[in-house]
Amino acid sequence: MLTSELYSKHYNAGKTLGAAMTLKVEEQAVCGCCRGDIAATAEKAGLKSLEISGVATRKTLYWKPGMRSIKEMD
Hints:
The protein is α+β, with helices and mostly antiparallel strands and 74 residues long. The protein has one domain. The chain is built from 2 helices and 4 strands, in the order αβαβββ. Strand 3 and strand 4 form a beta hairpin. It starts with a helix and ends with a strand. Pfam families: Deam_C.
């Protein structure tokens, strides 16, 4: 839910189209279901890229246009 609100806020302000966005997740891992939802929302927002830093998991996830889900960086 927070992700949708965040995207909407920036989308409505005209800040997402062609932008590279970075998010930080502090307490939990991003679940499998949310990975697809985040990718779909990023696509609709017109982002050029999205990077998600997981503090608790110490993993970095990414998305680029055309991807159906966010993926873990190698």
